[in-house]
Write a structure and sequence with these properties.
Order of helices and strands: HEEEHEEEEH
Number of domains: 1
Helix content: 25-40%
Structural class: alpha/beta
CATH class: Alpha Beta
Length: 200
C-alpha cells in the first residue's frame, strides 16, 4: 500500500461514519396511506389454449406532464392545476390504469397478453392517452377520467379504431381517500365501456 492511498482510505472511512449523504425519498414525512386502483371485476384464471388471433395487448397510456407524478392533480381554474395535499399514489396512475384495463378486459372475456416480455405479439394492440385523471373543483367537485383510445390490429384491415371515453363521478369530499375512491369508481366504469367497445 502506498503512502498516497492512506489519506484516501481515511477520508472514505470518515464519510462513511457521517452516514448517507443522500436521503432516499427526501425529507418529507411519509404519507398516512398510499392510493391505489383496483378492478371491480378481477380477471378469471388462465384456463386452456386461446387463439392468437383473439389476443390483445394493452400499452401503458401516455399522460400529460401533470400526471407524470405520484401526486393527485386538482383543476382549480381553466389554466391552473394544484395537487391535493396528503394524496400520494402507490404508483403512477397511468400504470395502475393500464392494469385495471387489463383486468377488466380479461374479466369480460378478452384474452389479454402481458407484452412486457415481448415473446408473443398480440393480434391487436390497445394504446391511448390518459388525458385527465384527477379532481375538478371549478364548479361542483367531480373527479374526471378521460382516455383517448386507439385500437389497431388485423380485424381493422389496415385501419385504426379511435374513440374517446370520459367518465365523471361526484366527489363527496376533498379528502384523499374519498377522491381516490371516486376515481376508482370512475376508472372502473370507463374500463367497462372500453371493454364493450373492444368486444364490439
Amino acid at each position: 500500500m502506498t503512502m498516497r492511498m492512506v489519506p484516501l482510505i481515511g477520508a472514505a472511512l470518515l464519510l462513511a461514519a457521517c452516514g448517507p449523504l443522500v436521503q432516499l425519498g427526501g425529507n418529507a414525512p411519509a404519507p398516512d396511506a398510499l392510493l391505489t386502483l383496483r378492478s371491480a371485476a378481477p380477471p378469471p384464471d388462465y384456463d386452456g389454449p386461446t387463439a392468437l388471433a383473439d389476443t390483445l395487448g394493452i400499452a401503458v397510456p401516455d399522460v400529460p406532464a401533470e400526471l407524470q407524478t405520484l401526486r393527485l392533480p386538482v383543476q382549480v381554474t381553466d389554466a391552473t392545476v394544484q395537487y391535493l395535499a396528503g394524496a400520494s399514489w402507490s404508483e403512477q396512475p397511468n400504470r395502475q390504469f393500464q392494469r385495471l384495463l387489463a383486468d377488466t378486459l380479461a374479466g369480460a372475456g378478452v384474452p389479454v397478453l402481458d407484452t412486457r416480455g415481448g415473446s408473443i405479439a398480440p393480434a391487436r394492440q390497445l394504446t391511448g392517452h390518459l388525458r385527465e385523471f384527477g379532481l375538478d373543483v371549478r364548479s361542483n367537485p367531480v373527479v374526471r377520467v378521460r382516455y383517448d383510445a386507439q385500437l389497431a390490429g388485423p380485424r381493422g384491415a389496415g385501419t385504426v379504431a379511435l374513440k374517446s371515453f370520459v367518465v365523471e363521478e361526484p366527489a363527496s369530499s376533498d379528502q384523499p381517500g374519498a377522491v381516490a375512491a371516486a376515481l376508482n369508481r370512475a376508472a372502473n366504469r370507463l374500463a367497462g365501456e372500453v371493454a364493450a367497445w373492444v368486444k364490439g
